[in-house]
Amino acid sequence: MDTVFHSLHDFMLRTESITYILIVVALIGITGFWLFLSDSDDK
Amino acid sequence: MPEESATSGKKIFTPFNIVAGIILAVGGVLTILRFTGGLATVTNLSDYNPWGIWIGFDLLVGVALAAGGYVTSAAVYIFGMKKYHSAVRPAILTGFLGYALVVLALHYDVGRPWRLPYPFIVQQGTTSLLFEVGACVALYLAVLFIEFTPAPLEWLGFKRARNIVVKLTMLLTIFGVVLSTLHQSSLGALFLIAPSKLHPLWYSSYIPIYFFVSSIIAGLSMVIFEGALSYRFFKGNMDEEHMAEKDTLALGFGKAASLVLAGYFIIKVIGIAADNNWHYLATGYGAWFLVELLGFVALPCFLYAVGVRDRNVKLIRWTAAMTVLGIVLNRLNVSIIAFNYHLPSSERYFPHWMEIGISLFIVTLGLVVFKFIVTRMPVLYEHPEYKGAH
Hints:
The complex is a heterodimer of chains A (43) and B (390). Helix content of chain A is 81%, strand content 0%. Chain A is mainly α. Chain A is rod-shaped and about 55 Å long. Chain A has 1 helix and no strands. The relative contact order of chain A is 0.09. The mean pLDDT of chain A is 88. Chain A has one helix at 8-42. The longest helix of chain B is centred in the middle third of the chain and has 35 residues, at 240-274. Mean pLDDT of chain B is 91; it is low at 3-8. Chain B is mainly α and 390 residues long. Chain B has helices spanning 15-37, 39-42, 53-65, 68-78, 88-109, 118-121, 129-148, 150-156, 159-167, 169-189, 207-233, 240-274, 284-309, 313-337, 353-374. Classes of the chains: A mainly alpha (43), B mainly alpha (390). Chain A binds chain B through residues 1-2, 11, 14-16, 18-19, 22-23, 26, 29-30, 33-34, 36-37, 39-40, and chain B through 255, 258-259, 262-263, 266, 269-270, 273-276, 278-279, 305, 308-311.
């Protein structure tokens, strides 16, 4: 985690990459969570 | 009106009245001290810490918890969820009292309170976020006041005036949502000016979004929490509609709160990633941040979901109380606990007991006024002459 950044580009590349991965995980996760949450509506 | 009116034939010396009376009496003395001796007499505020609990608790928490007004009226009048109609008036009343008390607390906190109207009449300073907050809070307080007036007008029997105000409902609701979106986020944006003072885990360029999204959670949870308390203490003032809708309301708002909490959790984690703040999580402040994020965001999100799935209204109500506590914790973290985190402990702020006393006084005043209104006006029941007419 204590990566040394030599330029703003380095910093942005790393943080944006992690953020994009998290967004994909979050979109899949929230879809699953919505199905879990709405499960009782179908019963 | 329900058969058991709380205004008739009651004891004056109830435990609530005695405790509230003592707090109000002490608060009255502290108020005199504040306005005769100045801020230094009753507070631990300093140039390092100009914002104490009167801002962190009374204002930031007060505004967030008063969000139930715009959340509920938007759900019912804009999104057409009429099944939650019975929750509108209590939510509007809580919102109105919340904002009124925020403005009252500001009079204590601001060094020269008589200058509070200056942004409107002397100098606007339109580039300042505080101007936006001030303008929105003042306008929204007026909107909430007008939105609530049908209840006292029905109580007083002013039919014509009441019918005119009811016709403005949709306009007022839209105005309320716009103003709330603006100032709930701007309260967070106030901290954008202090990137070196607020701990990086709480500081983020997304902080206005955090404040706005968390205000929706606060509003939803507060309506559930307040509904549970009203049912417990003002059952005699509730009509059949309120009784019948209370569980539907808890289930519906609990589901919404769970989903918004999930979204809030995601954007908080994305905030850490965007600023590369992962390494702070291993520090003491990181542990405290995780208590807030996991204990008061992720956990209530899960508990709400379980409560909704199992139709466990009791669990939803306890989770609402927990979420309200989480909102209090978040606002105190941002404004006090994680603020000036780099200062030595000798320079850190801890509220004077008189500051806490005045905050307690203001909350108690709100409870007393709330009780006075709901035991008299058609808030928890529909006025017989206007059943289904709004």
